[in-house]
Amino acid sequence: MATQKDVKNRISSVKNIQKITRAMEMVAAARLRRAEQRIENLRPYAGAIRRMTRRVVEAVENIPSMPILEEHDQENRVGILLVTGDRGLAGPFNSQIIRAGNRRAAELEADGKEVVWFASGRRGVSSLSFRNRDVAGAYTGFTDRPAYANAREIADDLVQHYVDNDLDRVEVIYNHYVSPLTQEVFHETLLPLQQIDALTEDEDEDDDDGAEDEGQKASWLYEPEPEEILQRLIPDYVEISIYRALLESTASEHGARMTAMRNAQENASEMIDDLTLEMNRQRQAEITQEIMEVVAGAEGLT
Fold first, then answer.
1. Short-list 64, 28, 62, CA closest to 257
2. Does residue 181 form part of some domain?
3. Which of 3, 11, 82, 192 has the most CB atoms within 10 Å of its CB?
């Protein structure tokens, strides 16, 4: 049985851990506020780019002769970009992305397709390497505060692989930020543009900018022609889509870490209460034992 001193040492250790988790929660909360502001500012622009790209793709009669716009006849090689974090201690934030990626890979491989892995964040890269997965593109060191240049680097690599016919399809999996308590795993098709996934509910609400009339969508006039607009939109669409995924993931990571550290503090408080109770019982037992020894010694003298 642990002595009173051992229990005191354990209580002191748990209190130190509680202080660390409290500090980490405060840091995550401060970073979360900045990340929330960045993603709230980007969402309307990213949604508008996505809606415009989809409309232009639907309006184009003759797809311009650009390699990035060519839809491959067969989809034998599919690239999957996992957006994770550089650090852990964020609850299920990283693990749920890795599980979603493995599930998607299993589906593709069951259909006879080859999966090419890309990962943003050290956790995703290390997890894929641990599972003996070859990582064609690893991007680390910026997940706490991603910049647009980071998104452009990733977009350039993915587009180049697609243009060189190394990939026939590109998909991205990331955490969509809802609240500090809730992060949803999003799976989207990035390339080819002809297979852009349906818009999410929040984007669909303003899809036609209130221009619906008795169920009929407004007609769109393009100047210049849709083909020329599409050529200008493509680089922005790919980069903005990846940049949004990075910002969504960053906000989700800070929210998940703040929640995890708060739960750790609560668990530490419960453990301290239990250990304090155990220490009091141990102290009572030691006092009782000392009294019994004194009484036994006194009886032995009589």
1. 28
2. yes
3. 82
